[in-house]
Design brief:
CATH superfamily of the largest domain: Cytochrome-c3 Hydrogenase, chain B
Number of helices: 15
Number of strands: 6
CATH topology of the largest domain: Cytochrome-c3 Hydrogenase, chain B
Distance between the termini: 36 Å
Radius of gyration: 22 Å
Number of domains: 2
Length: about 375
């Protein structure tokens, strides 16, 4: 504790104290506890304590056939279910050798990019309100509601979508859906401009984010950080460009990169990513091919004995991967998730050391974690 006694000595001979932040604190974005060592208002060290939401998801994958595991992926990053589905079904298709029809590949990209926008809107809404900006919260949920309506019209669900299957898509796009989606992505860049008008040059926002939580590129790479956090540190790595999958090799988009590695630059990366996602969806809607939405496949999927694959996608938060081992049966023999939030959270202590306690909510927000993916 930093308070000093009459003789100028620290109380009890100590200058530091331990402080618990969470798991009930709303700014921890879920059931996470941070054990802080502080000297007055300054953070000396930060130790994340996780596991409050652990459900044994990876073991559950071994108990069910390949098809039945798709709903389990929804419950990982539960604000980005479509990209969880995409990573898992891609791994299964690679494992058993399924060829996805072109129309299904385009539908998948449309759903994944709408999901990226939706996830970033939740991030911006909660990040802004944590720091003290309330208006963006309502603006962001206005647009997110339109995306959730599109999801509901497609598959009947709004959050845990279960919207993909190994081999293709469970449903074709309903009548009028392409037009409604096209109207949304045409209008959306103007909505992003509204958010930026509230925040980007706002002096309070910049005081709370510029120079806060600086993450050098070499540190980010050493910790396995991916996604907007890595690109905010100046590293131009995006799996959609580096290792194209589905229809990403057939559309044009830019990968936003900023070099300062602070909370403000990570904000700028995600804002531009939303614009690029709308650009990708527009191209997919224009080029959407006809034809089937499901590959020819056996009724029961079985992997070859001792086959193993790893398949990753660029989720809203970074690289999301599934490692699956087959043993010749209809269930995965082993399944392990490479969860983005878990990897990115490792960098939080590095960013928090030397920061103020008031900066901690900004740092948690800039990592953009979901505890369902961290704990599994």
């Amino acid at each position: 504790m930093s308070g000093a006694g009459p003789a100028g000595e620290a109380l009890f001979g100590l200058r530091e104290m331990e402080l618990n932040f969470g798991p009930q604190h709303p700014a921890t974005h879920g059931v996470m506890r941070l054990k802080l060592k502080v000297d007055g208002e300054r953070i000396v060290d930060c130790y994340p304590i996780i596991g409050y939401l652990h459900r044994g998801t990876e073991k559950l994958f071994e108990l069910h056939p390949f098809f039945q595991n798709v709903p389990h992926t929804d419950r990982l990053d539960y604000v980005a279910a479509a990209t969880n589905n995409l990573a898992y079904v891609g791994a299964v298709e690679k494992l058993v050798g399924l060829e996805v029809p072109p129309r299904a590949r385009y539908i998948r990209v449309i759903l994944a990019e709408l999901q990226r926008i939706s996830s970033h809107l939740v991030w911006l809404a909660t990040h802004a309100i944590d720091i003290g900006a309330m208006t963006p919260f309502f603006y962001c949920f206005r647009e997110r509601e339109v995306i959730l309506d599109l999801f509901e019209q497609y598959c009947g669900a709004r959050l845990t979508l279960n919207c993909m299957r190994p081999g293709g898509q469970p449903y074709d796009l309903p009548q009028g859906w392409v037009d409604r989606c096209g109207e949304f992505v045409a209008d959306f860049p103007a909505k992003v401009a509204e958010y930026e008008g509230l925040l980007t040059e706002n002096r309070i926002w910049k005081r709370r984010t510029v120079g806060v939580g600086v993450l050098p590129p070499e540190t980010a790479i050493a910790y396995g950080v991916t996604g907007p956090m890595l690109r905010g540190s100046g590293v131009a790595w995006d799996l959609r460009k580096a290792m194209p999958y589905e229809a990403y090799g057939e559309v044009e988009f830019d990968v936003p990169v900023y070099a300062n590695g602070d909370t403000y630059d990570r904000y700028l990366v995600r804002m531009e990513e939303m614009r690029q996602s709308a650009r990708i969806v527009r191209q997919c809607l224009e080029r959407l091919p006809g034809g089937p939405i499901m590959a020819k496949r056996p009724r029961v999927l079985k992997a070859a004995a001792e086959a193993e694959v790893y398949h990753a996608v660029e989720g809203p938060k970074g690289e999301l991967g599934f490692y699956i081992v087959g043993d010749g049966g209809p269930n995965p023999y082993r399944c392990h998730v490479r969860p983005t939030s878990f990897m990115n959270l490792q960098a939080l202590p590095e960013m928090a050391r030397g920061a103020l306690i008031s900066d901690l909510v900004a740092l948690i927000g800039t990592v953009d974690i979901v505890l369902g993916e961290i704990d599994r």
